Amino acid sequence: MRRSLVLAGGGIRVAWQTGVLQALTEHGLEFQHVDGTSGGIMTAGMLLSGQQPVQMAQRWSDLDVQDFSSLLPLRDYARGPWALPGLGDADGVINKVFPHLGIDTAAIRSADVEGTFNVVDFVTKTCVAVPHTEVDDELLAAGMSLPLVMTPLRRGERVWTDAVWVKDANVTEALRRGADEVWLVWCIGNSPYWGDGPLEQYVHMIEMSANGALFAELDAARSAGRSFRLHVVRPTHPLPLDSELYAGRISADTLIACGYRDAWVYLDQMSPDGVAQDPSCTAMTEPPKGVRLTERLRGRVGSDDLTMQVTSELPLEEHGSPARVVGSVDFEPWGGRVLLAGGRLEAAGADVIYHARARVNGRWVAIEAARELADDEGFDAWADARTVEFRADSGETATLHLGALDAARALASAEPVGAHGAMDRAGALARLGQLGLRRVLAAYGSEERGSA
């Protein structure tokens, strides 16, 4: 069977794809062809440069996302906003982002795996799948240069730009190269939500173009009698926009952990025949209104340090969805950082328990971390709630602590989810103050939680 990996766009949120790739690798999947479009060009470029998903995750974790921004010469801004060729250019991507992410076009051109990178030729208004043997830095950056945001690449009589307006996933190219099975890694939103304002509606235009082009490709393949299996890994809910990553309201580490979770959700329940090749294949639902918190807990197992970082999504609706958890455990005997799958949070009497599993040396290890929320007599409630008892079914146990600085960072990390626009965000924060803040304060042992 010939298998293609098709990496769709999604801006710098494609850090999420790195977690997906780690899960697919652990599942034992190999690909004979890799295709990248828009932001997916970065993921494809890292893979074809010879990196493993664990290396890719570390590079994303250390990346300063502000490096994506690069200003035009001052004379361009002096012409006024209506004459700008774009808000910025590709210099930051080429000179900072690509080197940091380890995207090496010389290595890509000599890669053993077939690769294609999609760029639109504006002169002909067509998407061109550039073979990996013919790419260079400027052409890869052009494939990520959204109109309005970044200037296109002018080369000879051609004008090259981002392909997302024509297609965001080149399934046709995968089939043309003989794929019997296509694995589509999709992180563009596809939910019923319609928002107001220029940013939301610019994103909606991309969503319509990307999803519409994909569905048209699937229809064309069906009409031509082209039979293949389609597997789609996607988030359950739309990912946060790039603006939230720029603003520090979510981190690349959290996105990577979400991708790992979402991939294993699909792998655990997938059909050998794949998914339906119709608009349902990328459909998502809006998340319930809630709050997202990230905390880092530290302890020791014998002489080895163990750090657990978890991001919890706590629904604020009284009859909302269960709390979801993503994250990682850093523990050298387990090979360094391992990501968590199947994470959830549950209340058990006076305890709140994190449940998850991690892939360690080729097998699953079940993890539990319990925090007692009940007050003891005296003045140690804060200390009690900042202590978590960690245990794994492989035998490791540890008492993890949330230091004072980490506790402050965790509280500062509180962000509403499932809220759109200023008023909705304000409403979510108000709800957090009425209901969710009680949970937050209880989780950190506040003696004042009864007054929230």
Summary keywords:
alpha+beta; disordered C terminus; nine-stranded antiparallel β-sheet; single chain; 452 residues; 17 strands; eight-stranded mixed β-sheet
Head-to-tail CA distance between termini: 59 Å
Helix content bin: 25-40%
Strand order of the largest sheet: 16-15-14-13-12-11-10-9-17
Tell me, briefly, the overall form.
Answer: globular
The rounded Rg comes to 23 Å
Mean pLDDT across residues: 89
Beta-strand residue percentage: 25-35%
Helix and strand content put the structural class at alpha+beta
Poorly predicted residue ranges: 377-382, 440-452
Characterization of the model:
Helix content is 33%, strand content 27%. The chain is an alpha+beta fold. The C terminus is likely disordered. The strands form two sheets. It has a nine-stranded antiparallel beta sheet with strand order 16-15-14-13-12-11-10-9-17. The longest helix is centred in the middle third of the chain and has 26 residues. The chain starts with a strand and ends in a 9-residue tail after the last helix.
